[in-house]
From TrEMBL:
Subcellular compartments: Membrane
Family listed: Belongs to the SLC41A transporter family.
Keyword Transport included in the entry's annotation: yes
Pfam family, one: MgtE
Protein name: Mg2+ transporter mgtE
Length: 277
């Protein structure tokens, strides 16, 4: 059949421009049949040059003709979905239960994982009793880590969806986010350290500990947390994609839980060691 003859060439001999020219003379059904016969890389290269509306119509025909797996592979390659486990169809078209099934497992598991944060705080109860000022800045640690990590994760998820980066770029992503985090952490440490010195003068301090020492310890803890959470936020979407999970669903709750736990560990370990509590 003429529709299927053109693609019977090797990858090196395949001409995308010729394939596009050939497709212009086909009906929508014939275009879908033609795409099925191509390899995945050939199909992606051809459809990447087609109008979005036409691509969506072809993919809908593939799904309706029992080629849903191929349609999802092409959609993922074109950045129309984030992973092969992402529900098919538009957001509003999917049922409530499909969204629940996609999200509930992670939410319940990570909620139980959050108990670890409470155990860490209980472990350092004596330090909090001797220096109540530490409790004031616990939310700052969690917020700083969560905000910077979420920013990094959002940018990487968008870059993955648009094809700006791929799995092979993970080391470049880590290195870039690490450098960004270093600059952000320095600025944030200075701001929070100044806040401690300027507005905590009336706080009770243990013998041998000055307000400047407390400010330095808290600032250093925040810096370490920001560097860790930003770098983690940059690499988590890549890990999710590697395991064929949806970064948009997975990254935010996992990042929030991990940042809460590591934030408390970094905070209390840093301040207790530096202040001798």
């Amino acid at each position: 059949m003429a529709v299927t003859n053109l693609h019977l060439v090797s990858e090196s001999e395949f001409d995308t421009a010729q394939a596009l020219s050939f497709m212009r003379s086909l009906s929508l059904e014939e275009k879908a049949e033609f795409i099925i016969g191509l390899t995945l890389s050939q199909a992606n290269s051809v459809l990447a040059e087609c109008p979005l509306r036409e691509v969506q119509d072809i993919l809908e025909l593939l799904e309706d003709s029992e080629h849903e797996i191929r349609a999802r592979q092409i959609s993922m390659g074109l950045g129309l979905i984030s992973s092969e486990v992402e529900p098919a169809g538009e957001y509003l078209d999917n049922s409530v239960m499909s969204h629940v099934r996609e999200r509930i497992g992670w939410i319940v598991g990570l909620a139980l994982m959050g108990i670890v944060s409470g155990l860490i705080i209980a472990r350092y109860e004596d330090a909090l009793s001797s220096l109540v000022l530490l409790a004031v800045y616990m939310p700052v640690i969690a917020a700083a880590g969560g905000n910077t990590g979420s920013q990094a994760a959002t940018l990487v998820v968008r870059a993955l969806a648009t094809g700006d980066i791929g799995m092979n770029d993970w080391l470049k992503v880590v290195w870039k986010e690490f450098r960004v985090a270093c600059f952000i952490s320095m600025v944030l440490a200075l701001v929070i350290g100044a806040r401690v010195v300027m507005f905590s003068g009336g706080s009770a301090l243990p013998d041998g500990i000055s307000l400047n020492m407390v400010a330095f310890a808290i600032g250093l803890a925040i810096s370490l947390q920001v560097v860790m959470s930003t770098t983690l936020g940059g690499v988590l979407p890549l890990i999710a994609r590697a395991f064929r999970l949806d970064p948009a669903v997975l990254v935010s709750p996992v990042l929030a839980s991990v940042v809460d736990i590591t934030g408390m560990l970094i905070y209390f370990f840093t301040v207790t060691r530096l202040l001798g509590l």
